[in-house]
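WARN retry 2 of 3 for item q-0093 after timeout on previous attempt; input resubmitted unchanged.
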Amino acid sequence: MRRADIGCPVQRAHSLSQSHGGGGYGSDWNGSGADTASAPQAPSGPKLASAVVAERAWDRSGTGCAVSRSIANRASTSSGNGFWRGRQPGDHQRDHSSRHSKALTKTRMNSPQSEVNIREQEKQAAARAAVELIEPDSIVGLGSGSTATWAIRFLAERVRDGLKIVGVPTSQKTKELAEQLGIPLSTLDENPQIDIDIDGADEIDPQLNLIKGGGGALLREKIIASASRRFVVVADSAKQVTRLGKFPLPVEVIPFAQALIATLIAALGAQVSLRRYAYGNPYLTDEGHHILDCNFGEIADPAALAGKLRAMPGVVEHGLFVGMAEIALLGKHGEVIQLRRRAAL
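OK item q-0093 returned
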């Protein structure tokens, strides 16, 4: 499907089969520029239930409204291992438990650790659904970051089951993980046309404009995305926003021009800070550049800001991905939601 043909989704919901088992400022970012997270491990026990993907249209507030409810029953899984649980015998008894029990359950659900677990489950579900879109003999862009890492792990399972693909990684860290998992790899020189690129995002707006680069791989990520026929974004529900800008915008710069560019960007109204490792040295990208994290607040016109940043000599790339994504798959409230760009007026 060509990107120019993408409009609002039709009113339908459908299941994506998941028969094949399986950075950002979240798990990939420690606030100081150091990439400290180890790669997530594939879940043990039963495989996740089939992803129910409900297409949704954005309403005028930009929050998204359900066009239709999912029409597939959620599969029952073992406690703690699956993303969904079907209704079990005795549920009617639990529904009439004491107020004390309900209050305790609510407290546990609202705990910070519970929130982390929910986000991880959402990432896994979105990643698994995206991997099911990969067809045999595809050239696959392998994204970077926590959600993309899940996609790589689930893709490795499909490869072990016999799927023939070749991956092109977007970072050195992704390359090392894919090699460890036995995914065949190539380079952009050998495969300049990518069939499908699966990558995460730090923020996603109603037009599927993105902020990326929290994990430091924004330059290679944008190159691979631009060379892909399909660019599929995977994320947890916290990444969906009505307007970009709460997440600081990463701007990759050459070290020689770093101070000058920081001054120019600050003149546009941003608070600018140099990304550093935990031990204090400036963060270095795979290409040896520095990253300026720029807090603009809400970005009213991402395309206009992208143009201004691109015009600054010494800016290598920025984390605004405008009009590049075909679809976004978000884990949210026990299902995987598919978002498409709203048709231009």
